[in-house]
Design a protein that fits this description.
alpha/beta, 26% strand, 432 residues, binds shikimate-3-phosphate, four-stranded mixed sheet, single chain
Length: 432
């Protein structure tokens, strides 16, 4: 599917983004193996979360829609799932594959996890290796580094593990496996990554100790817990950037989750000089997570140097930050972000190539990129690279580019944000 975008005179309105994708996955997976029944509200309607739900249903978990859209009842099966009779399809979702692998490593049956072409090319050695150290029987293509993954679950040893990458997916995978291990699981992280698993497991009765970058999880049975999923800051980021770089804009995004392990994009945009043009209103705590309405209006931005600890807490927002950087004064440098190369696409190569097509001036680096603030973009044909965040980042670029921008692969947005194009149409009004 193609979408054609022209820059509107004015960008204005208020919207609520879909439920947080990371929290949604965890609310289903953890409640699926809990004792009891939970109600989950505000869940993401994106294809990724549907992949997780389908895999869990294939193992006997009932996840039943309730009247309120986005609300489900999850009947926990306790520690034991049923052997699936067919391949488990994680679709495009790295979170589904990596978290479910951790869960399946202790289940006494055979399961095979696969996904689409993008997911089958993403690194799985990062979970296979430590799971094997725990004694799991798990195999994959290409020397156990690529999916499909075949898992014959069984009893697990506890490990102390030095994580080579700051990855919440790897951390959560090992925490899920650790629930059923014979002793505590100790994880040394190179930097903090999103902590939704820690928060939700703690609420479900798991003892987790955090000592700086070291996390210790004690084996436990989970007790079902209701979850109110906040709006996804990663989806809100597109409108934050659009509001800041469009010359005549005021966009309000309501109910955005602002968990500090996710909110790096706000800090980065503030470092770029967003100031009062990026405001938090109505700050509150909902379901144990900080939430606020975010208001973004036109601003002058400046280039920044971004690296180190902030990178894992805004990893998914870097492509759209690169769009903002095209409109900043001076250069923006993104370092320490080699993980971008192994996301749904190689996001360094894809961001550089597509923004270059729009007249941006960017240089790829092994672990990031340099973006020269050129101050304007010109409409052209761009590709999604089969990557939802690329498709949506290019839409934001199209909202400020002169002329017409055609986005090929626009349907990919539905992986995390099925109503993205409707929301965009609402913000541009009749002008597009
Ligand atoms: C996610 C963690 C991140 C992120 C992904 C979702 C999660 O991946 O990029 O979109 O839900 O745990 P890594 O933890 O592998 O960096």
């Amino acid at each position: 599917m193609e979408q054609i975008i022209r820059s509107p005179e004015r960008l204005a309105g208020s919207l609520a983004v879909p439920g947080d994708k990371s929290v949604s996955h965890r609310s289903l997976i953890l409640n699926a193996v809990a004792n009891g029944t939970a109600t989950v509200t505000g869940i993401s309607d994106g294809a990724d979360v549907q992949s997780t739900a389908a895999c869990l249903r294939a193992m006997g978990v009932s996840i039943d829609p309730l009247e309120e859209p986005g609300s489900f009842r999850v009947d926990g099966l306790g520690a034991n799932l049923n052997e699936p009779s067919d391949l488990l399809d994680a679709g495009n979702s790295g979170t589904s594959m990596r978290l479910l692998s951790g869960l399946l490593a202790s289940q006494d049956f055979l399961s095979v996890l696969s996904g689409d072409g993008s997911l089958r090319s993403r690194p799985m050695g990062r979970i296979v290796q430590p799971l094997q150290q725990m004694g799991a029987s798990i195999m994959g293509r290409n020397g156990n580094t690529l999916a499909p993954l075949a898992i014959r679950g069984g009893s697990l040893r506890s490990i102390e593990y030095e994580m080579p990458v700051a990855s919440a997916q790897v951390k959560s995978c090992l925490m899920l496996a650790g629930l059923a291990a014979q002793g505590p699981t100790v994880l040394h992280q190179p930097a903090l990554s999103r902590d939704h698993t820690e928060r939700m497991m703690s609420a479900m009765g798991v003892r987790i100790e955090n000592d700086g970058l070291t996390l210790t999880l004690h084996p436990a049975e989970l007790q079902a817990v209701d979850v109110a999923v906040p709006g996804d800051i990663s989806s809100a980021a597109f409108w934050m950037v659009a509001g800041l770089i469009h010359p005549n804009a005021r966009v309000t995004i309501t109910g955005v989750g602002l968990n500090p392990s996710r909110a790096g994009i706000i800090d980065a945009l503030q470092m770029m000089g967003a100031g009062h043009s990026l405001r938090l209103e109505n700050e509150r705590v909902e379901g144990g997570e900080p939430v606020a309405d975010v208001v973004a209006s036109s601003a002058s931005l400046k280039g920044i140097d971004l690296g180190g600890e902030i990178i894992p807490i805004m990893i998914d927002e870097l492509p759209v930050l690169a769009v903002a950087a095209c409109f900043a004064e001076g250069d923006t440098v993104i370092r320490d972000a080699a993980e971008l190369r192994v996301k749904e696409s190689d996001r360094i190569a894809a961001t550089v190539s597509e923004l270059t097509r729009l007249g941006g001036s960017l240089e790829p680096r092994e672990d990031g990129m340099v973006i020269h603030g050129v101050g304007r973009l010109t409409g052209a044909e761009v590709e999604s690279h089969d990557d939802h965040r690329l498709a949506m980042s290019m839409a934001v670029a199209g909202l400020v580019a002169s002329g017409e921008t055609t986005i090929h692969g626009a349907e990919d947005a539905s992986v995390s944000y099925p109503v993205f194009w409707d929301h965009l149409a609402g913000l541009v009004g009749d002008g597009n």
